[in-house]
Structure prediction request, 114 residues.
Amino acid sequence: TPHKMEKQYRKIFAMNLDDLKVNETKPFFDLRGRELVLVRTGEKEVKAISTTCTHLGCKVHWEPDKNIFFCPCHNGVFSPDGAVLAGPPPRPLDTYRVQVEGKVVYLYSETEES
Prediction:
């Protein structure tokens, strides 16, 4: 049987923490070109969430006034950490590991297999 490659992750600079207010989002592209959004959910807490709905792949949007991600295609609703709250999505939004060190936000992005 062929040897399965372990997923490789690289720690990359995402942004300065001061550039993102609590309950605000910023779009970001990982090393593979996948779009995600960084959401500051607390004083020292930032989440990285995929913008691709797990139902049919439509793009979800952050609605700060309601504190949710919303998919307009079939009314999918997700919590700030990507959990399904309503609608047809079969599973939570994909999330990425984030690390906040002092005032710097890093993201762990999957690298291409070599």
Notes: The longest strand covers residues 9-16. DSSP finds no helices and eleven strands in the chain.
